[in-house]
Specification:
The complex is a heterodimer of chains A (160) and B (419).
Chain A: H1 3-10, E1 12-17, H2 21-33, E2 40-43, H3 46-55, E3 61-66, H4 75-83, E4 93-97, H5 102-111, E5 115-118, H6 123-141, E6 156-159
Parallel strand pairs in A: 1-2, 1-3, 2-6, 3-4, 4-5
Chain B: E1 20-25, H1 29-41, E2 52-57, H2 60-69, E3 75-79, E4 81-82, E5 85-86, H3 89-97, E6 103-107, H4 113-122, E7 126-129, H5 135-208, H6 214-255, E8 262-266, H7 267-277, H8 279-285, E9 288-291, E10 296-300, H9 301-317, E11 326-333, E12 337-344, H10 351-354, H11 374-384, E13 389-394, E14 398-406
Parallel strand pairs in B: 1-2, 1-3, 3-6, 6-7, 9-11
Antiparallel strand pairs in B: 4-5, 8-10, 11-12, 12-14, 13-14
The chains are: A alpha/beta (160), B alpha/beta (419).
Chain lengths: 160, 419
């Protein structure tokens, strides 16, 4: 991928919400392989990502990758909370789940998720989806916001 | 659910010494006295072992009150002409509120057979005509009514337990499928990571291979190009296979959850569509599929489509490559419903396999692609329609699979006529 495209997406911080450490690692490895080296923060449950977003109301752009089946606050509840809150409503959300029921996918889209992907993941499609959402964010950002100058590589911050 | 409520055990002849509590709801004092006399004079049960205790009220409402307060009532004898209520509806009302107490209806009218059947349908265990009442007939009615209701209650409890078990099983399959899939994703994902690692490692090793002993080089090359990829290949394909099985298990567990929408279905049209859907498969098998004229049925469309698809799919899979395949779909009717049949001239079912045909994940000895849930699904679907599925087969000659769909809807179902 071109440097230009990489820089466009650079501004976006990926919030990965996933309770299974193996799944989280696979997502990270495959994002990297797909050329997506944005800052990524891993949360091991729904509660933690909600707390993080409540404290970080900056102009920073986020993209949430959200597992559904998690102990405590599950992904559907997180999705619902984020979409019913004005400050987090516009954060794009990719649902990543073992559920294969059409009903569940329909429900997630109804709640406002952008992409619904089932595990095991086809990472090519997955990375494309992220690029698209990242590009979309970039366009949405044009009105007045500044470009991030972050250039560090793959900064993974893991909250356990 | 009232599962803990024991069946009235005082109805078991020969075992019990506690008095039999009879509630008599009868406004006519002369009739009431007659019954009291008949019951009091001769003791009920076997060889007069059981004393009786008759509680007599003149109003229906009083009867309900007694039943609410006194949980030891073993049986109700009910007149259908009371000052505060008339007719068969009384039986129903008693049953709704006190389903565990049997009711014997006593009526002055000549009760004809059809009226009697109707009363039983409303929930009465039996009926006796005042004109024809004798000590013996009344005793017998009472004893049998109690026994029948006790068996009925046991049956009801068992069916509740069964339903509960089924629900548990369904949610078990659902949860297991999800939880089984999570580790599988790691196995599959990290196997693929190892594959990537080898791809990165191979050129590096090639670069330094001239620094190795020839024996070492051969060994490392063998490991990297053959042994490890082969092992990973097995891990990957097994994980894929496992994933398919889990999907199948999920699909199977979902069957019981979907609400069925009963409607009138033209089976000709439905079968034609099923055949069209698998046209490609049929053509490549070279088989001829013949559908005889089929009747209309009342069923859930999606379910029946699935059943026919599964049966056709199965027939095609197990055709005998040594002869031209022929599959015939037909129907006949018996007293209870429509019996459909799908007949093929395929390899047939070996006797050893016959018992396992409808079990989940079982497949015929002749290997055929699939997950092994088609017939398990078929059986589950047909049974939800209160029907059943069975087969006749001659090994080496072919099989016929039958399934029946009753004319009558299952009791708690409605016909959705919103088309």
């Amino acid at each position: 991928m071109t440097n230009e495209k990489r820089n466009e997406n650079q501004a976006v911080t990926i919030l990965l919400v996933e309770d299974d450490p193996g799944h989280a690692e696979l997502v990270k490895l495959n994002l990297k392989r797909g050329g997506i080296d944005n800052e990524l923060i891993h949360f091991e449950n729904g509660q933690k990502v909600l707390e993080f977003l409540a404290q970080h109301k900056s102009d920073k752009k986020y993209l949430v990758i959200l597992d559904i089946n998690m102990p405590g606050i599950n992904g559907l509840q997180v999705l619902n909370k984020l979409k019913s809150n004005d400050t987090t409503r516009n954060i794009p959300i990719i649902i990543l789940t073992t559920a294969t029921e059409q009903r569940e996918a329909d429900y997630c889209y109804e709640l406002g998720c952008n992409v619904f992907i089932t595990k095991p993941v086809d990472y090519e499609t997955f990375c494309e989806a992220i690029h698209e959402l990242g590009a979309f964010l970039k366009i949405a950002k044009i009105s007045g916001s500044k470009k991030s100058d972050r250039t560090e590589q793959n900064q993974y911050v893991v909250y356990y | 659910m009232n599962g803990g409520n024991p069946a009235p055990d005082s109805g078991r002849p020969g075992k019990i010494t506690a008095p039999l509590n009879i509630l008599l709801i009868e406004d006519n004092t002369i009739d009431a006295e007659m019954v009291g006399r008949l019951l009091g004079r001769q003791r009920l049960g076997i060889k007069g072992s059981q004393p009786t205790n008759v509680i007599h009220v003149g109003y229906f409402q009083q009867g309900l009150e007694v039943l609410s307060q006194n949980k030891n009532i073993d049986i109700v004898i009910l007149d259908l002409h009371l000052p505060d209520g008339e007719g068969r509806g009384l039986v129903q009302r008693l049953n709704e509120q006190h389903s565990d107490v049997p009711v014997v209806v006593m009526t002055g009218l000549d009760v004809d057979e059809s009226m009697g059947v109707e009363l039983v349908r409303q929930g009465a265990e039996d009926y006796v005509s005042k004109d024809a009442i004798t000590e013996n007939s009344l005793q017998r009615s009472i004893r049998y009514a109690i026994e029948r209701r006790s068996l009925g209650n046991q049956l009801k409890q068992q069916s509740e337990i069964l339903k509960e078990n089924n629900r548990e099983l369904e949610s078990f399959a659902y949860i297991a499928s999800h939880d089984l899939r999570a580790p599988l994703i790691n196995i599959k994902g990290f196997a693929s990571e190892l594959k990537h690692a080898i791809d990165d490692l191979t050129p590096l090793l090639k670069k330094y291979s001239d620094k190795m002993q020839p024996g070492e080089r051969a060994s490392v090359t063998g490991l990297l190009s053959k042994n490890i990829p082969q092992a990973l290949g097995f891990i990957q394909s097994s994980a894929d296979k496992m994933n398919t099985l889990i999907s199948a298990l999920l699909q199977y567990s979902r069957l019981g959850k979907r609400k069925l929408a009963y409607e009138k279905i033209d089976a000709n049209e439905l079968v034609r569509r099923c055949i069209e859907t698998i046209q490609h498969q049929i053509r490549s098998s070279g088989a001829r599929v013949i559908a005889e004229p089929l009747p209309e049925i009342i069923a859930d469309r999606l379910s029946i489509e699935q059943v026919f698809s599964n049966l056709l799919d199965n027939s095609i899979k197990y055709l005998d490559p040594r002869r031209a395949g022929e599959i015939r779909i037909a129907a006949m009717e018996d007293k209870k419903g429509t019996i459909f049949s799908v007949t093929d001239n395929g390899v047939g079912i070996a006797e050893d396999d016959a018992q396992k045909v409808f079990e989940i994940f079982r497949r015929g000895a002749v290997s055929a692609p699939g997950e092994g849930i088609g017939l398990a699904n078929t059986r589950a679907i047909v049974r939800r329609h209160d029907g059943d599925v069975w087969f006749e087969s001659v090994h080496g000659k072919g099989s016929t699979f039958f399934f029946n769909i009753p004319f009558e809807l299952p009791p708690d179902k409605d016909l959705n006529n919103d088309e």
